[in-house]
Amino acid sequence: MSKKTIEEIALKFDARSFFPFEEPFQPFIDWAKKCSTMGSSLARLLVHKEKGLFISFRGALGINQHIETPNNSKDICTPCEKPCLTACPVGALNQDGYDVIRCKEYVNTPSCQECRNSCLVRRSCPSGQNLRLKEQFNFHMRAFLND
Ligand code: SF4
Ligand code: SF4
């Protein structure tokens, strides 16, 4: 669905479409970091000014024009109290990196209630608190656990 939509937009603007799931794989994360609205967080995830730690990329458009963007994304985390660094109950995701195995083991234990539906680290970010949907949390976590 998103592929079809992005291809239609590309056609309309005489642009080239790129998708994260198609070869040759493109540097989507590096592209994202060049945007003025996104940057690296202290928890090693991309953080968006308004959406916080819930970001994903369905596609990108390439155009034959150079656009300068002021990269002020480094300011996103500066004034924050940084709850993302201590939100994970088992220390699987923090400034030292992401231990995926430890995370999945914990989420799959019967006693784990707090992040069964969504990652506490991602939810701890004050940016975008009012934009999150429970259904979106659940979808994200189901996809992660089935990966
Ligand atoms: S899902 Fe839970 S265990 Fe995994 S990184 Fe997030 S807070 Fe930690
Ligand atoms: S919780 Fe604060 S420090 Fe962590 S990613 Fe969000 S804005 Fe940055």
Please characterize this protein's 3D structure.
There is one protein chain. The chain is an alpha+beta fold and 147 residues long. The chain has one domain (2-146). Helices cover 30% and strands 11% of the residues. The chain has 5 helices and 6 strands; from the N terminus they run H-E-H-E-E-E-E-E-H-H-H. It has helices at residues 2-12, 28-34, 100-107, 120-124, 134-146, and strands at 16-18, 38-40, 46-48, 60-62, 93-94, 97-98. The protein has a two-stranded antiparallel ribbon with strand order 1-4. Strand 5 and strand 6 form a beta hairpin. The longest helix is centred in the C-terminal third of the chain and has 13 residues, at 134-146. It is globular, with a radius of gyration of 17 Å. The two termini are 21 Å apart. The mean pLDDT is 90. The structure holds iron/sulfur cluster (SF4) (2 copies). The site of one iron/sulfur cluster has 15 residues, from loops.
- What would you call the quaternary organization? single chain
Output the structural class: alpha+beta
The proportion of residues forming helix, as a percent range, comes to: 25-40%
State the total count of DSSP E strands.
6
Q: Provide the list of bound ligands, each named once.
A: iron/sulfur cluster
- Terminus-to-terminus distance: 21 Å
Low-confidence stretches: none
